[in-house]
Amino acid sequence: MNKWIISLLLLLALAACGPSANAPTPTTEQPARATPTTDSSLQPGSNNTSGQGNQTSYPSLPPTPTPYPDDYPAPPPPPTPVNPYPGTDAGGTETVWILHPLGQQCADTSTYKYPNQQEARADLTAAGINVLQMETEELMVCQACDCPTSTHYRAEISSADLNKALALGWTAE
């Protein structure tokens, strides 16, 4: 009984995968297509009589813009470009962000080198460092007495001033 079922399924599979009686045989000839070089109706400057739209010829040149009248208002000036290189200041020099912790955990607040952001900026400026931006940021730090506080001062300076900032105890971000 199993042999009959297997034989029947095998014959069914062969019949399904075999060629169709109605399938056309492929030909090697390609039908002729009209191209701009073979069809005269597609040549520039000729009338298109093939009934394809109302185009009469290929345009030879793009249309010339019409000038504005003398009393037409002038267009607005283009917007001021945004600095495409955010790592550079307006002068084109590279900038770098530097960090300094507020102090050490478990230490007395009177031992902090910079008790506020204004004093941190003033110290950098006194060292001849041009501070472009300054902010206070909370960072994730370890929870031990020898670790820095989570509060850090963050300043953007010119990369030429980086060595001066490192000498003051700041670190490059």
Describe the structure.
Helix content is 18%, strand content 14%. It is built from 3 helices and 4 strands. The termini are far apart. 8% of the residues are buried. The model has no long low-confidence stretch (mean pLDDT 78).
Distinctive features:
single chain, 173 residues, alpha+beta, four-stranded antiparallel β-sheet, 4 strands, 18% helix, flat
Any chance you could write out the topology, listing elements then pairs?
Blueprint: H1 2-17, E1 95-101, H2 117-126, E2 131-138, E3 151-158, H3 162-167, E4 171-172
Antiparallel strand pairs: 1-3, 1-4, 2-3
What's the number of helices? Answer: 3
Oligomeric state as shown: single chain
Shape, principal axes of CA atoms? flat
Give the beta-strand count. 4
Topology pattern, helix = H, strand = E: HEHEEHE
What does the main sheet amount to? 4 strands, antiparallel
Strand composition percent: 5-15%
The Rg value, from CA coordinates, equals: 40 Å
Whole-number mean pLDDT: 78
Helix content: 10-25%
- Contiguous low-pLDDT stretches (5 residues minimum) are none
The structural class is alpha+beta
Distance between the termini: 80 Å
The largest sheet has its strands arranged as 2-3-1-4
Describe the structure concisely for a colleague.
This protein has 173 residues and is an alpha+beta fold.
